[in-house]
């Protein structure tokens, strides 16, 4: 059965229903965790389970493969499936919840995927930024020209760390309108959000330290860990409800974790937003174990409707949360201007930035200050949110129509990404390579994890206008996935 999840995890008929294979997965998980099936026990054969449950042979196989990918069972040649022998049932669940990676090695693959998307003829579903045509280019360009004409002689000194004072004050006032008390003095202007995030990592870790990331997570986080020689603790993250706080606390108890790099709003790649209650519980947990939070909040302005989404930072009274964001997703990507509300580490971060990049571009800081002072940023954001919502709903419908049965689609409120889960036996990297030959890019799940758990998933960008070319690309993508599924079924049943 094909399922298309909306923001609260319902199918297209408006009811929350699990696919048949998932019903079996959850049933067997409960039985394993309660001791019905013990470590090393052999599960019923595919045929016996099919007869007992009334499910097809392929549905049972899919369920067993999911359990295997999550560490609950192992397959043995000519012996079927057994409960993982070296783990107790309770430990099995914990192993799935937290994955350890002492050496992160993701950059080469990420580079390959991003380079493949540079072809100007590509239908770029793998693109990380919103459709550039949605940005107010004329207004921003006018502000840039005005800044260039009026650039003061003292601009170099005025825009040294922590950055342009007027721009920092504007940002502090924007946070104040949301009820978040952030002083301009703790804001550091950076060369994009990624520099803000990297500086945040550097001020609270040293090579060899453990850092928690979500699983799956933004690939930039994994690249940063790799570059800085940090170890990753990947904590299980639910598609709808977000990071597992119980698993996070176990990670804190078992390892000397120095920092967490997390997204609480419109998470990339899954798209969920944590509830306010969960954000507060997360903040309390971090305080209890004295772990710094690097909060990646670049999608905060892209909420769908109603009240703005709030960061974990709003609950922070210790200065232990570093809130990072930028204008790249909401206003203009090419300017590469971001910031971090660094809390108690603001001065330390300024000194570190002075040694690394010296300062963020003075003309660009002045241009953004000009735009935010003279133009109606809120009107632009309102139009952007509306357009992103419309385009994403349209793409959901097309994916529902053209992707084959057995594919799950998760589309959350806000943001512009759609998460697609293929049958667990399909490698999305194979889909990626086949799609690139057809001038279609996707972001395969392997980009977002140091484990193998999301190799059957992919992220799609739904911000682009759906014209004849993009509709045809979705149809072609559906054909590629169908061919991969058929080829896999033929191989499995031989």
Automatic annotation (TrEMBL):
Residues annotated as domain HTH gntR-type: 18-86
Keyword tags: DNA-binding, Pyridoxal phosphate, Transcription, Transcription regulation
Record bears the keyword Phosphoprotein: no
SUPFAM superfamilies: PLP-dependent transferases (SSF53383), Winged helix' DNA-binding domain (SSF46785)
PROSITE patterns: HTH_GNTR
InterPro entries: Aminotransferase_I/II_large (IPR004839), HTH_trans_reg/aminotransferase (IPR051446), PyrdxlP-dep_Trfase (IPR015424), PyrdxlP-dep_Trfase_major (IPR015421), PyrdxlP-dep_Trfase_small (IPR015422), Tscrpt_reg_HTH_GntR (IPR000524), WH-like_DNA-bd_sf (IPR036388), WH_DNA-bd_sf (IPR036390)
CDD domains per record: AAT_like (cd00609), WHTH_GntR (cd07377)
Highest rank taxon of the organism: Bacteria
Membership in a protein family: In the C-terminal section; belongs to the class-I pyridoxal-phosphate-dependent aminotransferase family.
Protein name: GntR family transcriptional regulator
Species in which this protein is naturally found: Shewanella algidipiscicola
